[in-house]
Amino acid sequence: MIRIDRVHGGNPSDGVLDFSVSINPLGPPRAALDAYHSSIVDIASYPPAYPRHLEAALARWLGVERECVLAGNGSTQLIYLLARVLKPQSPVIVTPTFSETANGLIIEGIEPCALNTTSECNFHLYPEAAIKCLRDGADAIFIGRPNSPTGTIMKIDEAEEIVTACERYDAWCVFDEAFIDFVQGARSGVEFIEKNHKVIVLRSLTKIFALPGLRVGCVVGHPDAIGKLRDAIEPWSVNAVADHVTRACLDAADGFVGETREVVSVAVARMADALSRLPSIRVFPSVANFMMIEVEGELIPGAFGKHLLEHGIMLRDLRGLPGCSPGLYRIGIRSKSDNDRFLKAARSWTP
Q1: Among 48, 179, 262, 323, which one has the highest count of C-beta atoms within 10 angstroms of its own C-beta?
Q2: pLDDT, tens digit, 9 for 90 and up, residues 98-120
Q3: pLDDT band at residue 34 under the 50/70/90 scheme
Q4: Quick one: pLDDT at residue 4?
Q5: Cis omega before residue 149 (within 30°)?
Q6: Model-level pTM?
Q7: Residue 171: what are its φ and ψ, rounded to 5°?
Q8: 8 Å CB contact between 57 and 187
Q9: Over 93-143, what HEC string results?
Q10: What DSSP assignment string belongs to 149-206?
């Protein structure tokens, strides 16, 4: 059984480099900063109760109709909304993954089951394992694409196998694509929303545009499903500044996202190569702007993270996350100089 887990990255002490979060290392686009300053005058006025202009901009960016998109206060609010509205009775969550997916269900009195992926297969999800869960009675399945903290992504043809099975067993299929914009050439589960009206896709603007302080995300699905969610969401879920800044980000998205992918892919490859040369560290393949590692030989759980913290670096210790074990850490990608500082500290680790 999955239990509530409220441990997250972020909020380091002053002077500590935060590798526990996974935000675009380039920071927000210039257009976002300009929009932020120009929107300050709006804080004395109510924003739209429901941000339809923002949803129209998101729909154009995602290539769907406006009625297929619902914006919210980050994808986390929308995860809780899904649990409240869909109310699955036998949901399955592919783990390890973002803990708020399970938390949202548990708070609604729903007990999710875990479909555990393992280190032996680099935490890859095989479609037949998910389909077996559906055959055994699961009425919803939640999948990260790419998944955090593992950095894996299910191929689109594998995702389609699961979507088809969900249609056959009348089950919800929820893809959390908070990090997909970092993946070169990745196809989104959004393309399945017409094929199966029970496909839901979560998208985050926080990660790719480096806006964690503003909290913006959206959920994409068939208009029938989105309509039910829209009826249940709280008004004023997106504040005026977030609305204005996000639309500016979308206008600048093409060039900014392309530059981000190039920078991140080089940084991830460089970090993975350097860490894999260390005798006590195993690096798992990642397509996202973070990577998961396994540190062998910790005499005390969390010792590697404590060692890094003594060097002014904070990691995401995953040992309490459902589906993870002691020795597993997630590392967000930062600037080259910050990454070099992390590597220097990691090289000084001795079990």
Answers
A1: 179
A2: 999 999 999 999 999 999 999 99
A3: very high
A4: 81
A5: yes
A6: 0.96
A7: -120, 155
A8: no
A9: EEECCCCHHHHHHHHCCCCCEEEECCHHHCCCCCHHHHHHHHHCCCCEEEE
A10: TT-----HHHHHHHHHHHHHTT-EEEEE-TTGGGSTTPPPGGGGTTT-TTEEEEEEST
